[in-house]
Design a protein that fits this description.
seven-stranded parallel sheet; 23% strand; Arc Repressor Mutant, subunit A; 38% helix
């Protein structure tokens, strides 16, 4: 069930995610609110599946092996993703070719592209295809393969082989985690293999990632920052990512 999160609750989620777990007392001290307020916020986040409660505290629902559910990811940092989507859409010219991969941020970008003209979009995301199919000036090409029921992403060797047929102007990819060693990571090896093929078949690679992806952990390496041309995010990247982006010569666009 969708849940509306206020800035304090988003900060609470960030604090727990950075620590993997936290006590109610820690969170009340960090946020400067009462224990009762923290308990209410925790209950709301737990009911939405964003956090898991235990006696005296709360933890993230998974670590490196499993992502949050699709509906939960749509809720998390939704405002930041919307700003990112508008910034990406502003940078995409009419009449170009794109590949959009799996993720709630790329779905937000698809929504922001509904007024573009002359786009040819290849995707392994049925949600992206459904959104953009309502734009009569956009040709949508859908990869074949195995459909993941949890998020309608298309994965597998058939999707890899399909994407290898194309060379596009821009690949727009989402990611689950950006780690301090400069690696971009995700959870599903099948999804990663498709995304790696998308990168190899694109003249420019743009990464759309909200601030929660920095310092997050995931199991499978998808790429390195030096394979990315532009990063679109919703807040200035913290250390050491600011230095890593400069070293990799990645253009960082902060959506405000």
């Amino acid at each position: 069930m969708p849940v509306n999160t206020n800035p304090r609750q988003l900060q609470l989620l960030d604090e727990v995610r950075n620590r993997q777990s936290a006590s109610v007392e820690q969170l009340a001290d960090i946020l400067g609110v009462t224990l009762q307020t923290v308990r209410r916020d925790i209950q709301k986040m737990a009911d939405a599946g964003l956090l898991v409660r235990f006696h005296g505290g709360v933890r993230v629902p998974s670590a490196t092996v499993e992502n949050l559910g699709h509906t939960q990811r749509q809720v998390l940092h939704a405002a930041g993703k919307a700003r990112i989507a508008r910034a990406v859409a502003d940078a995409i010219p009419n009449g170009c070719s794109l590949i959009l991969n799996i993720g709630t941020t790329t779905e937000a970008v698809a929504q922001a592209l509904l007024k573009h003209r002359g786009l040819r979009v290849i995707t392994n995301n049925l949600n992206v295809a459904a959104i953009l199919s309502s734009n009569a000036d956009c040709e949508v090409i859908v990869a074949g393969g195995v459909v993941r029921t949890r998020d309608r992403g298309i994965v597998g060797e058939a999707a890899v082989d399909f994407i290898r047929q194309f060379k596009v102007d821009i690949a727009l990819i989402g990611i689950s985690a950006i780690e301090p060693d400069g690696s971009l990571r995700d959870f599903d090896m099948r999804e990663v293999k498709v995304a790696q093929t998308i990168i190899s078949q694109s003249r420019e690679v743009w990464l759309a990632a909200d601030r929660s992806k920095f310092q997050r952990q995931a199991m499978v390496e998808l790429a390195r920052l030096n394979q990315i041309h532009r990063l679109f995010t919703d807040a200035a990247p913290p250390a050491p990512f600011d230095a890593l982006l400069r070293e990799a010569e990645v253009q960082c666009v902060i959506a405000d």
